[in-house]
Each structure stands twice: as C-alpha cells, then as structure tokens.
Write a structure and sequence with these properties.
565 residues, alpha/beta, Immunoglobulin-like, 5 domains, six-stranded mixed sheet, five-stranded mixed sheet, 24% helix, flat, TIR domain-containing protein
Length: 565
C-alpha cells in the first residue's frame, strides 16, 4: 500500500468517525436518506436541492455541513462562495477543494429529523468530455431523436430563469435554447457529445452550469418474432358462403432486419400451394421511422364454400435462426340479421303492449296490491274519518234530488258498506244543537281526505248558505265547510282533495267557480259520476275504482260512536 492510499484510508475513517460523532450528539434519531452523487467541472457553479422539486430559500429547518478531515459548518451568508439558503446548497465558481461529502440536516417542528447526504466530486478542465462527467448515452433506432438537458441543469435554469445554449462536440449549435434538443432524420454524422449549458444570475453575478449526453445512432439489427395478425393464437373470422374473403397474415421479425423474415399460410397443416379458387401474395416491408421489418401473406379465397368453414387456416411466421411462430384462424358463418330484426320488433310491440296495459290497468293493479303492501304510516294515523264530504246547496229541484240521492245513498253504500271507509256527512254524522263551527273544524282536522261534490249550478248557488237539513235525505252543506276545507287543502296543504262532478258543467265549464276551486281542478280533473249508466253503482266499476284509488290505502280503524262525537 503506497503513501497516497494510506492517507486516503485515514481520511475516510476519520470522516466516518466524525459523522458518527455528530449523529451521536443529538441527531442519532435522524433518518438517513439515500445518498446522491454529483460530478461537476471546475470553474462552473452548482445549485443543489436534495430530492425537492421547489426550493424554499426561507426554510429554517435545514442546516448544511461538509465532511472531510473534520466537520465544517457551511455559511448561510449569501455573499460567501459556498453557502446555503434553506434547502438549497450553493457552490459558486467550483474548485478542486470543494470535492467532498456534504449533508443537510433537516429537523421539522414535529421533531422528525432527516439526514440528506450528497457526494460532490469536482474535476479539472482536462476531464471535459470524460464519461465520468457524462449524464449517460442516448441509444435508439428512432429516426427523430430527442436529447434532453440533464435534470440538474434544467432545475437550475428553472429556479433562476437562466438561458440555455447547446453545443455539439463543444461547437455552438445556433438558435437552440430549449431544454430538449431534437435531431431530425438522424444519421451517423449526428453522433457525438451534446452539452447543455445554463447561464444564470445570482446576487448580481453570472454563473454557468453544464451537463453532457452522448448520442449514439444504432443501426444494428434486433431479431425477434411476433405475429401481428391474427392477433390471437386461435381466432374466428365471419364470412358469407359464396363470397370472396381475404385472410391477412402479418409477422414482425425485428428492427433493421432486411432478410430472414417470411410469412405464409398453411391449410389443415399443409403449406399453401396454388389451387383453384385460392391465391396467396407475400411482401416484406420496413416501417419508418421505427425500422421494423414486417412480412405479410394475404390468402384470397375467391368463393367461400361449405368446406372452408371446416378447415383450419394457420398463419406461419419464420425469422432469424429458424425461429417460428403460428396462429390459427377458422371461418364462421355470419348470423342473419333478419331473426334479430324480427325479435327486436316483437320485443318492441310487446313493450308497447305491456306499457298500454299497465297504463290502462294501473289503477286496478294499485288496488290489487294495496292489501299486500300496506303503508307503515297508516298504522300511526289517528284520524277518525277517511273523507270529509263537502257539497253545495243546489238551485233546482232535479239537481237537488240527484245530489241527495248520491250523498245519502250511493256514496255511503259503496265507500262505507262495501269498501270499509268512514265518511263524515252533515245531517247524518252531526248532533243537533252542537256548535257548528267547532264541529266543522274538529271533524276536518280528523279527516284524511276532502271530498268535494260539484254540481252544475255550484257557482250560482250561495256559498255561505246556512240551510241545515232535517234528515240525511236532504242533507246539504253550509259555507263554513268550504272555507275550512279550502284552507286545509290550499294553505295548510294537510288534506288531499277528491273532486267529483255530478251532471254536465255546460259551456261555461268551471270558469264560474271560485278561484280556489279552479286551482284544485287544474291540479286534478274531477271524476264525473256516470249517472244512469249500467253498473255505475257497482263498487268495482271504473268510476268507483278511481275514487278508491284516491282514497287512503287502508281505511281508518273502526271506533265507537262515542269516540267520534
């Protein structure tokens, strides 16, 4: 061992011991990060940030040290040639003595500690162009090449908004200032050492940082074998019997391969030979700019027969060193679109038919499934009546008789006797002498629906009549019922309204009605009572099904008469 090697060993051991002493003195819990190694040229400048994309010059968590024969504190004075700011280390106008091991101690406010080591080696000018300063080679067969400026030089230029210039074998390349140098239609003449130099300003002084990459143009052939089409080892292709079809066999044999690349078709394991109804054409082509060599064989069947659907067509590829690969293709008859079209039309008709049935029988379906899907809210409803019946005193005798018949006989016989609902009807359910205003308000609050019976002369009749019937046969309603009912339906929105029309409205329709009623009619058209039609009074007629659909799903529980009063 010579004297130089002995001195170097002593320096290394001393550096390691000093490093450990710092770790043992309060930073033993620090996590040591991966060490970076940087080679730079004497006379240039280095701006370094450890594994951080955006430097923070005001970060107080960092302290930089240099480790050589002894630990040296690095100055944070910006005027010093070697100093640091936050995470960033500055070595300006480098000289050989700047070589050594550096480390940034990062202590966060949470108490976490990290050691960011970096080894910097400075070479003198005689090493310019040496592989030790080279950032790697660029080797590929692309015709258009891209030479990126080394990342360290890019980050320096980005941080200080520097200017980039490019050199090839130390000769300036005019008008090239981007971080990536593009070489189009590359030839052997373009090979060489490409150097990216960033000129940047700091503290009113100009510095430079460079990095080099070597461009090598590969022309050497690369042999491999891949069947491009058919894409799978076993594949089916649709064909029409009696029609012409072309089967494509494409084989990729490698890069820059001019020979030793073949593609051909085998039929049932036998190499193709010219026969009636079949023909094969082959060609070899080189793709640009990748230089990939592809052999193609096209088998033409002029008229597909039933026999061809039973045969196996094999694409066979052969490359360098007699390497072979194959993929099998079989023909399959195309399915006729007519059955699919007929099936689609049938499904469309069935869908329309079902939609019409559902629309027409929607109410019937809803009434059918009601007993099987009771609403949970119905069990919590404490109302005493399913509907509060509101009607107007008619003006003529015929209308009055029709209304009386509907109110006192038809309506109760269907909804109460046959469907189990409970209705509140004046003259039948009120007690003589009881305060009318209090009774109306109380019974309205205890009802789940408001049933409004409309008559042809409703608009011309008195809305506030005080006439009270002596018997259910002549039961009519006073005007206060209207006020309370419309208030609950329109203002408080506590009651759903069921509108029933007796008789014909005439040409005036509903324009003569009060605005509140017109609003309810616009929201829901009245159900017209089909007086005189056969089966109209049957509980399962179309009219009563629609009324039952609008009524609560589950009737109120039966209560004693004393409870209602």
């Amino acid at each position: 061992m010579d004297a130089f090697q002995l001195l170097f060993l002593v320096a290394v051991v001393t550096s390691i011991s000093e490093w450990k002493s710092v770790s043992d003195s309060g930073k033993s819990q620090c996590e040591i990060m991966n060490e970076e190694s940087i080679t730079v040229l004497e006379g240039e400048s280095l701006f370094y940030v450890p594994f951080i994309l955006e430097p923070n010059f005001n970060n107080k968590n960092f302290t930089w040290y240099k480790y050589s024969t002894q630990i040296q504190n690095i100055s944070s004075d910006k005027k010093a040639r070697v100093h640091y700011q936050g995470e960033a280390l500055f070595l300006l106008n480098l000289n050989i003595s700047d070589s050594g091991d550096y480390a940034a101690w990062e202590i966060k406010s949470s108490g976490q500690c990290f050691n960011h080591p970096v080894k910097i080696e400075v070479f003198n000018a005689s090493y310019r162009g040496s592989k030790m300063l080279n950032y790697g080679e660029i080797k590929n067969s692309d015709q258009s090449k891209k030479v990126p400026c080394p990342e360290r030089v890019q980050s320096t230029c980005s941080a200080f908004k520097g200017n980039i210039t490019w050199y090839k074998d130390y000769t300036l390349i005019e008008d090239q200032h981007e971080v990536e140098l593009r070489v189009h239609n590359a030839t052997k003449d373009h090979e060489g050492l490409y150097t990216c130099i960033c000129t940047w300003a700091y503290n009113n002084k100009v510095y430079s940082t460079s990095g080099s990459r070597e461009l090598i143009l590969l022309e050497k052939a690369v042999h491999y074998l891949e069947i491009l089409t058919p894409a799978d080892e076993s594949q089916e292709q649709f064909a029409d019997e009696g029609s012409e079809i072309k089967l494509n066999c494409s084989v990729l044999c490698g890069t820059n391969v001019k020979h030793d690349c073949n593609a051909s078709w085998y039929i049932n394991g036998i190499p193709f030979k010219n026969r009636d109804g079949y023909s094969q054409t082959t060609k070899i082509a080189t793709e640009e700019p990748s230089k990939n060599t592809i052999a193609t064989a096209i088998l033409t069947i002029k008229k597909v027969s039933a026999k061809d659907f039973q045969q196996k067509f094999k694409c066979f590829g052969e490359g360098y060193y007699y390497v072979t690969k194959n993929a099998t293709l079989t023909l399959k008859r195309k399915e006729s679109i007519i059955p699919l079209a007929i099936g689609g039309v049938c499904m469309l008709f069935i869908g329309v038919f079902v939609a019409v049935l559902v629309k027409y029988f929607a109410i019937d379906l809803a009434l059918f499934f009601r007993p099987y899907f009771p609403l949970s809210s119905s069990n919590k409803d404490t109302s005493l009546y399913d509907a509060y019946v509101v009607y107007q005193t008619p003006m003529d005798k015929i209308t009055e008789d029709t209304l009386s018949q509907f109110i006192t006989q038809t309506l109760p016989s269907v909804l109460e006797d046959k469907c189990g609902y409970r209705l509140f009807i004046h003259g039948r359910d009120d007690i003589p002498g009881e305060d009318r205003l209090e009774l109306v308000e109380k019974c309205m609050n205890q009802s789940r629906r408001l049933m409004v019976i409309l008559t042809p002369d409703l608009g011309s009749g008195s809305m506030t009549t005080e006439r009270w019937p002596a018997s259910p046969q002549t039961s009519v309603m006073g005007g206060f019922d209207w006020q309370v009912g419309l208030h609950h339906a329109l203002v408080q929105r506590e009651l759903s309204v069921i509108l029933i029309q007796l008789g014909d409205t005439g040409q005036q329709q509903y324009t003569h009605l009060p605005p509140g009623l017109q609003h309810l009619i616009r929201k829901s058209a009245p159900l017209k009572w089909p007086e005189g039609s056969g089966g109209a009074a049957a509980w399962n007629s179309r009219f009563w099904k629609r009324v039952r659909y609008l009524m609560p799903a589950t009737p109120v529980k039966k209560c004693a008469q004393s409870t209602i009063i």
